[in-house]
Design goal:
By secondary structure, the chain is an alpha+beta fold. 50% of the residues lie in helices and 16% in strands.
Length: 378
Amino acid sequence: MPYLTDEHNMLRETVRRFVDERVKPYADEWEESGFVPRDVLQEMGSLGLLGMRYAEEHGGNELDTLATAILAEELGRSTYGGFAITVLVHTDMASPHLFHAGNAVQQDRYMPDIIAGRRIAAVAMTEADAGSDLASMRTTARRDGDEWVLNGAKMFITNGVYGDIFFVAAKTGEPGRNRDISMFIVEKGMPGFRVERPLKKHGWLSSDTAELVFENCRIPAENLLGEENRGFYALVRNLQNERIVLGAQAIGEASKAIELALEWVTQRRAFGATLWDKQAIRHRLAMRSAQVEAARTFVYNTAWRDAQGQQVIKEVSMIKALCGTLVNEVMYDCLQFHGGMGFIRETAIERMARDARVQAIGGGATEVMLEEIAKRLI
């Protein structure tokens, strides 16, 4: 693609080699244990994969949005969605809040450890009754002298069990001012903050996910992240990057699923010929391949435009809706073509189909994305 430089291509090779050598041989164990070992993330940090767009002074590489799209695509190709999202929440959904809104003291304190993988980041935004509707969150924070006091609960928090640094959204305005949200830095172990319970999920099994509770959780006043009552706009801003990343991850998953299906149908025989000899199967895979390639081009173009500072609000919503739907359609077909083996836990396609389901939910449900697109069509 014309957008990609030699540096981008080298990054892809690095990520793919790491996945082949350090992820695939061990990730089944992580699926059983429910988390990705810390030393694996630290290895990624030593390779420069956890801070590609951050400042060199903190250990980052100062690359662009395309670099994060490539990282997400290659992690998606790993076939382990739980591993992929563990990394991407850390790199592109949580830590960007510190990068964009943190002051010099906050960045100097936390960013080097985040980029090195010594401390794992999570963003605590979603609640049981407030997902895509950010203004409905109920968690509150009130100023009390030199401290903020947080009360409330967060649900479906990736890296919630084993995370170290949490960027927490809470209401800080007067009642009725629904967008008066602020962001806070909360560290594991602070009084009044606890992991209520780990959550068992349909997919993404190697990603630790938790419900978090804040009961009169006192944090220093200097842990306010960015401006008071401006957190809503920080969340919306970062959702743009998040949706590009999730779209790229979905494309990586879909393209790998097609590769696995092609390997299977060209070998599996039925009724005297391979499944590839069945026109219906050949044509379905041909169309899915075309759709994935078109979606990949769209993701890369949008990432490039974002890197140029262009406005891409409509496009990122399109990416999230399109890729979240497409990856599920691809998984359905590829599992179907595997027949009974596609229903057996020992096959990659079965795991990938489970993992893909949340791509139409997390980061903005498809229906919400379509409404966002519709608003900008006229």
